[in-house]
User: What shape does this take?
Amino acid sequence: MQGKQVLLTGGTGGLGLGVTPALLARGAKLTVTYIHEKQVERLKKNLSPQEFASIRFVSVNLFEEKAVAQLINDMGKVDVLIHLVGGFSMGKVAEYSYENWQKDFELNLNTTFLVCKYSLQKMLEYGYGRIVTVGSRGAVQPAGQLAAYSASKAGVVALTQAIAEETKGLDITANCVLPSVIDTPANREAMGDEDANKWVKPESLAEVICFLASEAAKDLRGALVPVYGEA
Assistant: This one.
């Protein structure tokens, strides 16, 4: 991935702590989106000064189409899109508020659509691209109290596979990873750490994501890669 222009959304989050260093180690040129400055500072502690200085950080609201369009237009070229932004939620259908349902789709599916739409326009312009999205085990194996999360992530899967169909015959691919529980600080806080040794480490998932974003995966299109660990 030497010299590839990579748009990494959510690169300062829990999964990003694994993915961002892995991309830098492969020579990628990163544009990383963020919302909170404290997340940038947390990432900084995981990188060398040289690595941190090489990243272009952009504060952007990925819920706003104009902001996403501007972000990607300013990049000039997008060789790789890796979209990590998303959120986990639980609740029984009979008790789940419509407001929260809409928020889940905004966060997990609508942001994916917007960054994919505008990144894909650039990729079509230049004739090259790699798109990697993050679904969930719940997208293909829904469970009780996970309806909103599973449905929104299933939407991510469908969107990714549709893009893969639309880009057949081009040097553009779209693939999706399906993690189980990722071992992040947020998940440990929410779920406890009793079973954390069975969860997927961000560094491990990062290796799969980087593979899908690389030249080595040029013949994978619309793949759904299960990364379940021992969970």
About this structure: The chain has one domain: 5-227. The two ends are 31 Å apart (CA to CA). The mean pLDDT is 96. Residues 82 and 132 are 5 Å apart (CA to CA).
